[in-house]
Amino acid sequence: MINITFPDGNIKQFEDGITPLQVAESISAGLARNILAAKLNDEEWDIARPITHDGAIKFFKWDDEEGKHAFWHTSAHLLAEALQELYKGVQFGIGPAIENGFYYDIDPGENTITSADFEKIEKKMLELVARKEDVVRRDISKADALHFFGDGGQSLKCELISELEDGHITTYTQGNFTDLCRGPHIPTTAPIKAVKILSLAGAYWRGDEKRPQLVRVYGISFPKKSMLDEYLVLLEEAKKRDHRKIGKEMELFAFSLNVGQGLPLWLPKGAALRNRLQDYLAKIQKKYGYQQVITPHIGNKNLYITSGHYAKYGKDSFQPIHTPEEGEEYMLKPMNCPHHCEIYRTAPRSYKDLPIRYAEFGTVYRYEMSGELHGLTRVRSFTQDDAHLYCTPEQLKQEFLSVMDIINHILGVFGFEYEAQISLRDPKNPTKYVGSDENWERAQQAIIEACAEKGLPAKQVEGEAAFYGPKLDFMVKDALGRRWQLGTIQVDYNLPERFGLEYTGADNQKHRPIMIHRAPFGSLERFVAVLLEHTAGKLPLWLVPDQVVVLPISEKYNDYAKHVVDVLNDNDVRAIIDDRNEKIGKKIRDNELKRIPYLLIVGEKEASNDEVSVRKQGEGDKGSKKIITFATEINAEVAAMINK
């Protein structure tokens, strides 16, 4: 007999070899019908996999991330099975579940796959689903795995197997398709009721530009067709909200191949928007005792060797810049933190000086492969709203809590809902990180305690920490329910040690400060992109580049329109004029497309009464008002937004 511990703490005995599905059946038939995956002692577990030892169990349904993950992972295998039947000689790379759906990387060989094939692939997948194939997990030796996949001509799989440890290799089989996989999966393909192939993309094998380029087939699946229909509606709405499209319409930013891929050019209106974001955060930071600093865009290579960034990211970053001086190398700045550590070292520090809070809107550079670039969300040059705090152990929790307050305020002002995630190191892969076990445990515990003190529910995820310390990530949910990682706070015992940072304590002895990294926006580029898609470009009135556009109904009233603009600008309302020789209807349509919140129409009546006819974006006509009355109302609306 084995003991199974349930989430509520109850313990029940079952026969050795029982499966999570059978455990669920012992509780209720309804639970058994709805579970898709399980965890046993925090290890992902197929619900059809026998349990042979004591353990704590958790069940996951469709509404749980883990449940969707198992469902979509099996759907990725279903896609591969369909491709295997449709196209001879296909080689398979990897096929994981992702946040929304799944993909499979394939080498199509002599086959050509285009969007015209999507319907055929979907039809084949549903044909396979109708067979209700069981998904069977098997342990396999390394030699047998190499033999099996080698005989099948699957050289990509053989490469993966060659790097695995014997005794820890498993396969999953459904029908005539067998894949190298760790799982978990749902026990049968039967629950998959609706599938959609979404797109194709190129992807280098193992992310290496020197390796073959594969075809990445993206798809999504659901247990009900109605869910797929709802998703496709959201997908169409997402296309309308694409920040690249909106940014072009609002004249915010652009890209030029002459400048380089992934290097955004901020146009005047976009630069104004960025500056307003920076000014807003700078005012908040000033209240919390932050000091602004500025550091160069490059640094000596040795700086990043000291920090550990070069060892971790050097091969994947922009290559060092060589100067005429022999042996001298510089790098484009990948991070601001090493520079801030050097600022800390410019003077002796006492415990009375701490905490010290350095803030910088610092532009950094990281080489992303061209296939990974996407508008402002994935770029090669971006500006972090970065800050680094240096404090004593006694000050750590309060400083962390204060940063949480700042981020909570910022996200609240923009109307974002968010979830918190504590990103911990992977205990099974300690070589990915720098620093002692003791420092890591202290840093992780500090974040856990801070969340508990704030009453902030936070999911703990292993393997998502930065290489130098754990972090608290803020996962924002936008208007379409998509999750984005924006703000972050990180506790770091390691960089102060690597840079030899010190302060003199009350005991007159030297001590090591603790460092906190934080960025409420994350990066201005990513934040603006998410905000544009969240609001569909209808930015908050206080932030939008142009709050008002004045539309004269004919050239006869251009002078009055200019007078209105001057009065509004003198009263801190950002106003422009559209004095094109166009019909008023066209002017209204064009400026609504630019998402300008207020359109002021002026003609003979308005000019005679020193008034404007007000039209609000999305709400239509609001009647006529005196110019100064309108300006006062706009300023009051702005004040209410930024002071809430």
What's this entry about, in short?
The protein has 644 residues and is α+β, with helices and mostly antiparallel strands. The chain contains 20 helices and 33 strands.
Give a topology summary:
Blueprint: E1 2-5, E2 11-14, H1 20-27, H2 29-34, E3 37-40, E4 43-45, E5 55-60, H3 65-86, E6 91-92, E7 97-98, E8 101-107, H4 118-129, E9 136-139, H5 142-151, H6 155-162, E10 170-174, E11 177-180, E12 194-204, E13 213-222, H7 225-240, H8 243-249, E14 253-254, E15 265-266, H9 268-287, E16 291-292, E17 298-300, H10 301-307, H11 309-313, E18 321-322, E19 329-332, H12 337-344, E20 356-365, E21 381-391, H13 396-413, E22 417-424, H14 437-454, E23 458-462, E24 471-477, E25 483-492, H15 494-498, E26 503-504, E27 510-511, E28 514-519, H16 524-535, E29 548-552, H17 558-570, E30 575-577, H18 584-593, E31 598-602, H19 604-609, E32 611-616, E33 620-626, H20 627-642
Parallel strand pairs: 1-5, 16-20, 22-23, 29-30, 29-31
Antiparallel strand pairs: 1-2, 3-4, 3-5, 6-8, 7-8, 8-13, 9-10, 10-11, 12-13, 14-15, 17-19, 18-19, 20-21, 21-28, 22-24, 24-25, 25-28, 26-27, 31-32, 32-33
Helix pairs in contact: 3-4, 5-6, 8-16, 13-14
Structure characteristics:
20 helices, single chain, 5-stranded mixed beta sheet, 644 residues, 8-stranded mixed beta sheet, 26% strand, alpha+beta
